[in-house]
Amino acid sequence: MAEAHQAVAFQFTITPEGIDLHLSYQALSQIYLSGLRSWKKRISRIKNRIIKGVYPASPSSWLFVVIAILATMYMQSDPSMGLIAKIREHLPLSLSLSAQGQTVLSVLLFSTLLWLSLILALRFCLKLLLSYHRWMFELHGRISTKTKVWATLVRLLSSRKPLLYSYQTSLPHLPVPSIKDTLERYLESVKPLLDVDGFQRMTRLAAEFEKSLGNRLQKYLKLKALWATNYVSDWWEEYVYLRSRSPIMVNSNYYGMDFLYVTPTSTQAARAGNTITALFLYRRKVNREELNPSRIPGTVIPLCAAQCERMFNTTRTPGEETDVLQHWQDSEFVAVYHRGRYFRLWVYRAGRLLSPREIQYQIQRILDDPSPPSPGEDKLGALTAGNRTPWAQMRKQFFSSGVNKRSLDCIEKAAFFVTLDDQEEGMMGENPSVNLDRYAKSLLHGKCYDRWFDKSFSVVVYKNGKNGLNAEHSWADAPIVAHLWEFTLATDAFHLGYTADGNCKGEIEHSLPPPQRLSWDIPLQVQMQVSESLAVAQALADDVDCHVFPFREFGKGRIKKMKLSPDSFVQLALQLAYYRDRGTFCLTYEASMTRLFREGRTETVRSSSNESCAFVLALEAGEDREHCHKLLRKAAEKHQNLYRLAMTGSGIDRHLFCLYVVSKYLGVESPFLKEVGVCLYWGDWFILCSHGCDHLDKQPQKISYMLFFKDLIFDLSTTTSESSNNPKMSFNSFKEYNESLSN
Questions:
Q1: Running DSSP on this structure, what letter comes out for residue 383?
Q2: Where is the active site (predicted)?
Q3: Which residues share a beta bridge with 707?
Q4: 300, 333, 407, 560: most buried by Cβ count inside 10 Å?
Q5: d(Cα 138, Cα 134) in Å, to the nearest integer?
Q6: What is the pLDDT of residue 680?
Q7: Which range scores top for mean pLDDT: 51-55, 480-484, 730-734?
Q8: Where are the alpha helices (DSSP H) in 169-318?
Q9: Which residues, 6 or more positions from 53, have their beta carbon under 8 angstroms from its beta carbon?
Q10: Cα–chain-centroid distance for residue 44?
Q11: Helix 566-582 to helix 625-647 angle, to the nearest 10 degrees?
């Protein structure tokens, strides 16, 4: 926008009398305000770098150190033990400064060095404290003296209010587990799934691997851990996500829903206006680092915030062999899709964020625009939904110059993507469950061409005012997007609000330039590839059966009254449901975060354990209630312990994954790692396979059961054509059994 104003700010004509110069003072004012905002952001970033760079100390503590040293020097005492005199002797400006000036300058230099040393010492102490994780394994109400002292020290060093990224340099690095521990936990996890001969074979392969190749691979992994910030995350991002050549739609991208029972307004443009405003307010907080760092609930233990950096202005750019995540600084516009047309909507004017009412006004202009899409434009987004290599080839050949490049840049450099959907979704009518199924599928893949799946996230606003989002997975995990979406929904409904007639609040500046329609020149070859990508994406979308229904019977409060972990309860319910559905057990993937460590992402909790299988088998065999009750609690405690191990860097799968990657780099084969690849298929190797890894050929059926207690929804998702045998009934049976226990 600033460039457009600049173009009309200076106008001149050449006349016989000379040059007639005309200045647009309004345009000059807007350019000035836009530049002023830019400089304010730069100064704010420099200030934040200084504040978080000296954390857990403060910049003002430097002055305290200087005054303290000067005071001791004034009292004829030398706290530096001769270092100040040494510094004074080596000052290059000794001839141009008085003796007193040399002394003061020497004191300043010594104080600064002492201050920096103290900061490094405090940061090192904080890192050591944050490396202590035994507190997580202590029983509730039985906290040891060591943990109490530790908690006190952490609180003291964290007493200053931190910025969003203040803890980053103090977070410990993810440790590399020992080969022996990983193999022992691995064998324990597969024991209930293998027969006697199979388990003995895996035990033998594991022992051979530990004695021979395992130690060699481990040395390379420890070497990487010495210089890498996190020995897992870069390989995880590259090989699990970015190197995938299959569609990211459904396979990688995930969705978030709106309020289920509340719709703040039924006006589509108004809902879009408040939603976009709330998202930019969140981006402002992220840029200014005004958000408090995420912490373990009920503690002062911080979590890594590195994933927040690529939340906005980020796109996954396709490549022929691997994709690349590109991030830009502070785009002042969003890309909008409506009925086959693409628009660029500026949300800043003269350095200020437009009011929600102004954004609603601009959105309404897009909705009222009667122009048809240009040839090939309406389904162009299908390129991002199909296989990655064809999209990369089309992008390189037809979108690297000219009008197509300019329009594609507008989409990729936008803060985020907005779809104004012409459908109505949500809990509607007499059968809300059916509508929720359609709502979830719409957010997951839409029409396969009306979302831009490469963007870090795309916001979808429906005709009836419901909204939701579709997020790309490679740049961050779901909790980061969940915090963003929770803030957005809360700000939209409770902070920004709406007028009585359902419109956004605020005034409108009617001189706003209209949203810019993006132009395309789509040749026939690209149109053919769009059709092919759409066919691939549509087949994938048709293979997804998604069933979502409200679950109001009980929530996590009821489970806690039984003195059980809600997470353990749900995971055991899934084990029981799967066993009743399939008559067997399988390795089960549950994600645990590892953000206690710098740049940590996730680890696998292998929820299927000896204890969980024993509970399910006892329940199915009809054993007495007291015995089943004991097995239930034992299985829940085991699951909690597995979760804690995963959180604290002692998981199995990420370590095995990295060992496998090292073996591929070295060009060596391991019979154990090959067998592990098959056994891990229902764990992390399932993700690898579904993203196009060539070391596993056959893809078994995938069934996932998810229960979200926050909204009390039980969600059954199946990506196979074969339907399962009513797992809802299995879950209800489990619920009735536990109710009998509580009674």
A1: G
A2: 473
A3: 714
A4: 407
A5: 7
A6: 42
A7: 480-484
A8: 179-190, 196-211, 213-227, 233-235, 268-288
A9: none
A10: 25
A11: 110
Q: Which residues pair with 705 in a beta bridge?
A: 716
Each residue's pLDDT tens digit, 553-608: 888 899 999 889 999 999 999 999 999 999 999 888 899 999 999 999 999 999 99
The residues that bridge with 704 in the sheet, in sequence order, are 717
The DSSP string of 414-479 is SS-EEEE-SS--SS-SS-HHHHHHHHHHHHHHTTSSSS-TTBSEEEEE-TTS-EEEEE-STT--HH
Digit-coded pLDDT (tens) for 1-18: 444 444 445 555 665 665
Phi, psi dihedral angles at 295 (to 5 degrees)? -135, 160
CB atoms within 10 A of CB 433: 11
Who contacts 706 (Cβ-Cβ below 8 Å, separation ≥6)? 714, 715, 716, 717
Domains, the chain, ranges and CATH? 2-40 (no CATH), 60-170 (no CATH), 179-238+549-742 (3.30.559.10), 251-543 (3.30.559.70)
Radius of gyration over every alpha carbon of the chain, rounded to an integer in angstroms: 30
Confidence of residue 546 (pLDDT cuts 50, 70, 90): confident
- Cα–Cα distance for residue pair 457/417, rounded to 1 Å: 7
Q: What is the predicted pLDDT for the residue at 13?
A: 60
Any catalytic annotation for residue 473?
Answer: yes
- Of 384, 383, 382, 286, which Cα lies nearest the Cα of 327? 286
How many other CB atoms sit within 10 Å of the CB of residue 237? 17
pLDDT for res 28: 65
What is the average pLDDT score of the chain?
Answer: 85
For residue 504, the 8-state DSSP code is B
d(CA 52, CA 268): 41
Given its phi and psi angles, is residue 58 left (phi above 0), alpha (psi -120 to 50 degrees) or beta? beta
The identity of residue 582, as a single letter, is R
Q: Which of 473, 639, 655, 691 is catalytic?
A: 473
Question: Secondary structure of 32-47 in the HEC alphabet?
Answer: HHHHHHHHHHHHHHHH
Candidates 517, 457, 486, 505; CA nearest to 354 is 505
pTM tops 0.70, yes or no: yes
> What are the angstrom distances between the C-alpha of 194 and each of 114, 198, 246, 354, 495?
61, 5, 32, 61, 55
Rounded average pLDDT over 422-442: 84
User: Exposed, middle or buried by CB within 10 Å (0-12, 13-18, 19+), for 639?
Assistant: buried
pLDDT computed for residue 299 by the predictor: 86
For residues 639 and 565, is the Cβ–Cβ distance under 8 A? yes
- Residue 45's pLDDT band (boundaries 50, 70, 90)? confident
The Cα 143–Cα 129 span in angstroms is: 16
The SS3 of residue 257 is: strand
